[in-house]
UniProtKB/TrEMBL annotation:
Record field: catalytic activity: a tRNA precursor + 2 CTP + ATP = a tRNA with a 3' CCA end + 3 diphosphate
CDD domains: NT_ClassII-CCAase (cd05398)
Native organism: Wickerhamiella sorbophila
Domain Poly A polymerase head residue range list: 35-174
Protein name: CCA tRNA nucleotidyltransferase, mitochondrial
Taxonomic lineage from the root: Eukaryota, Fungi, Dikarya, Ascomycota, Saccharomycotina
Amino acid sequence: MRAKIVLDATELKIRNILLTFTKEYARQTGKQLTLRITGGWVRDKLLGRPSHDLDVAIDQATGEEFATALQQWMAAQSDEKVASVHTIARNPEKSKHLETATTKIEGLDVDFVNLRSEVYTVDSRIPKVEFGTPEQDAFRRDATLNALFYNLDKDQVEDFTGKGLDDLEAGILRTPLDPSETFHDDPLRVLRLIRFVAQLNFTLALETERAMTAPSIRDALQTKVSRERVGVELKKLVAGMYAAQGARYITRLGLAPAIFTLPEQYSPITPNWTVLTSMLDTADAVMPLIKFDYDKPHLWLAMLMSGMSHLTTVDNKKKVFPAPLIAVKEGIKLPTQVGNLVTKVLDSAEDLWLLSQQAASSRLETGLLIRRIGAEWPLCVAYSAIKYNNPSSLNGLYDAVHAMGLQDAHLMKPLLDGKQVSKLFPGRAGGPWLKEALDKAIEFQLENPNATAEDLKTVLLE
């Protein structure tokens, strides 16, 4: 960890612009402002990580007031076009508890907001927000290492919790206040801290982890937090460089049921969450042995949902759906295509493993399975390798698919289209037979990669 924040050339220009303007602002209004960059930028700069997310906290003005005056002042100082100010409205349901003004300075996005205090009620995670002191603003944050401020005027880091710098140095995630209070105020912070584990490879402080195990906290995460926000945090978690660490915390703390929920209009299911524990036990050893590229974020998402494999749920109209699809689409509000992908990964694992155990896989069987899975078949093969703890066989299957030229089998089209096939049987109306004929065409082409359209005509006529 660096002992001091070192600004790059662009950041230095931004600092000079803001400090120069605060003097002009004081002359015009009589308010002597103190500006502080807060949150993740301070943490990442001290860790030597790139960060271009500048959040500036103001002590005596709202973000919109300050940013608007700044934009007008910058426009008067230059003949060049100055970026406009965009105000992001308060949206408590998406964790935006205070109006934020954003603009561009020297090509970087800069957000402005006033220092604040937050007071929560028992039955809501939406706080009453008021102007606050730097100390109040620091202590209402999710972690001590995210409560560090960089004072632009003094050019120094401020640690109002008294623990942020030490925790950053030690790689510990700790809440500024009592963790039970912090998590009851905003249960989403449970998932946020685990997301930071996945991104930074840090560990949770013992008292912080212990508080996360409370049934009331898990219930609050499931019922008080919008599913969109849960999905946002989970998406960042599985994309983290240390997603395995985050997944272990989710398992150890028993959080999966609170994350992957089904709406009330769907019948309940009974996932086997112990499957994830066994997969994590083998993932560390197996993943380095997988010799091909695959989609790691979606692999981790599929592993987190492994306990829902092959489960179905019924809605109030008696329609049956794969449970993982609904858990993704409604439980964490990620796109339907992601839910379909996770379902496909879970459902195809056994078929891929069985195929990998054959002494010599047939072109037809292999090609049809690749077509059923689609473009993400390497991801499915990787998941199967972990689930069955057999990277050697699944690497062999991956190589066999390429050796047979079937890696794009899902894109294969019949050498004759529907109209051409229909002409072979004049006077016969379209119907199920035509689909069967086109399916037969694909099977013939998979078995005979050098076949021509004339060869296919002969087979279909026979």
